[in-house]
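P.,

For your records, the input lines for the assembly:
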Amino acid sequence: MLSVKNVCKEYKKGVRVLDDISFEIASNSCVGLIGESGSGKSTLGRLILGLEKATLGAITMDSEPIHLWHKHNRGEMSVVFQDYNTSVNPRFCVEQILQESLWMSSKKMSNTELKKLLQSVELPVSFLNRYAHELSGGQLQRVCIARALVSNPRFLLLDESLSALDVSVQAEIVKLLKHIQNEKQMSYFFIAHDLESVSALCDTLMVLHQGKIVESVRTESLKYAQHPYTQKLLDAVIPF
Amino acid sequence: MNNFWHKLRHDSLAMLSLSIIVGVILLGIFAPWISPNDPLQPHLSEKFASWGSDFPLGSDHLGRCLLSRLLYGIRTTLFLALMTMAITVTLGTILGLIAGYFRKVEESMMRICDVMLSFPSELMILAVVGMLGAGIKHVIIASVIAKVAWYTRMVYSFVLVHRQKNYLLFSQVAGVSSWTILRKHLFPFILDDIAMLATLDTGWVILSISALSFLGLGVQAPTPEWGMMLSEAKNVLSIYPMQMIPSGFAILIVVAAFNFLGDSIRDALDPKHCLIPKSVV
Amino acid sequence: MSLLSVKNLTIRDKRTNNILVQDLSFELSLGKVLGIIGESGSGKSLTCKAILGLNPDWLEASGSVLFETEELLGKSHKDLRKIRGKKIAMVLQDAMNAFNPLYRVGHQMVESLCEFMSTAQAKKLSLQWLVKMGFEKPEVVFKSYAHELSGGMLQRVMIALALAQETQIIIADEPTSALDVIHQHEIINLFASIRDEKHSLIFVSHDLGIVSYLADDVLVMKEGKGIEYKPSQNLFSNPEHEYTNYLIQTRRTISQRFSQCLA
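Structure tokens returned:
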């Protein structure tokens, strides 16, 4: 589905934030990208979202260059960000937030559709008239997930979507995301720094270190990981 | 937004300023019906009349009714100032939004603004009026040119604050067009700030139009205009100093009202400046 | 004897009359680590700040906070300043905002320390502690500005500062929540390494994994109330309260697959 080939990104000449990145994401799969802050993982996310252009290399979706694909397939890719507080316009109530994806299509969601959507992210219908500051972090992140689902995307990018949440809420969101994937048949690309939550959600893990993908493993064979940096990441997890 | 009106309503100075401004505007609109005399009709036999029933605020060196001239002067002074502000704000907002949101033109537009801002605005106005010639149309054009760069810059900096917010990125990913993003996301945010700036600045524009008329560059005689009335009074200062008082005070009060209202709007918009504290958990 | 004992601490918002923390009691003995867990909004941070009188004036704290034999609640700001940084230090979640961006990090460290000693001594001491915090080139860190260091490095500098002051109690309010796993690991090990007879630690987190790793006693908070207060091992193996159980279950769900894959 998504294919990234030899992608490099430079902001300053000679300083590569991303260096020769290649990978593929099959449809209906879930791939996780792990790296520490400054490793370039969010930049990669922005390239895939079409918000920025790669300096070198090609990103294609269904063998069509990504920026063209975005034009032809509006709403087929969506995103949930880490910082839920800035993810929604603070002047909008939940209903307006959810309607936003449909601004371009001159359609509006009916009340029953809105209700169904809120139910799918396990929020009560009474939330439709609430504003962002009246919701807790977990609830707001659920609204963001619901908003991402409005356009029925086939590909969902989760950019550190769990990191800012409490652990108990993280667990619930992971459950929710798995449930949604089963129901709607879509691909996830999950960017995070936390091995535990990534392995809870994803089938394949990629480790990004200083702009390079140093290792790519199936989650089940995580213990056979070779690269010293992956080892370091594995050691850093405090087991519970 | 409710909070904003609530705060403004409890600010007595703001309400006083607002009622003065609204009152003056109404007086201006109804000037033909309220004014006791024709503002342009000279009564040479009754020049320098003192305050009384025929001429409530006296008459000037040509025997024209000062009150009538003052009321008709609202139409020129205040309405022209408001029109100038409206043009400046609209233009500045559009240019600022474009400069802030479309990165391709950002650099060039901001550098042009820098150049324009490097001249003092009074000098700029004088230069433009000097080139185009005297006349009220040219004064408005000059004022707009002098101020628009500053507004563009302000709107641009407001947009910059919001440009990297995730909800804008989401809109972009969802394929929402730039125009819709500007209209639905960014514009409402900057509207309050712009309203505040514009209110504060209206006082400045009134002063600058009056000042130019005072210098003889703006409104031409015999059209009543506060700055020009002041200028005429200056010529007869030694004979009849009272002629300065009506127009002088009118300018003072209206400019002060706009400045106070602008200050109050700014305080009301500032969430940190709270009358009623929000509960913080 | 306990070093710090908090009894029936209640924090009320004077403006809305909401009770934010209610009847909270716990004790901290010398050389022990107390973990406080709870979700965001449960009043963990308010409690920590109330101990040092750092809450804004419109939050009224009642009850008692006894440090050794001194009552801290109701003390004047001047008196509290003698305790802050000398007897009790605090490490905040957001290290990025805890440093003044206009001054070098070292300058700020020395400034906080030179109340007790000469400037030269303060500098020497800061450098020593920076080395202990795992900085290979402490001089470089000493001369950097806050924006030149990463969040993890700043957090370590802040901990170095807290330790250099040789306070008896360190209150760490979510010190690792904003950090990457690797840096989080370093910080946790640091805290583990200073667990000795001279220091006591209050460690606030929403992550049960870290708390179970560090703490001797654990206090579970929900909506401003202390729900369960027990020795750590006892709590995690045998949770009494439903909410504690919920927290443990959800934490397990997250780590379950990871542990399976590694096993």
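Two observations worth noting. The longest helix of chain B spans residues 178-214. Chain B has a mean pLDDT of 84.

Regards
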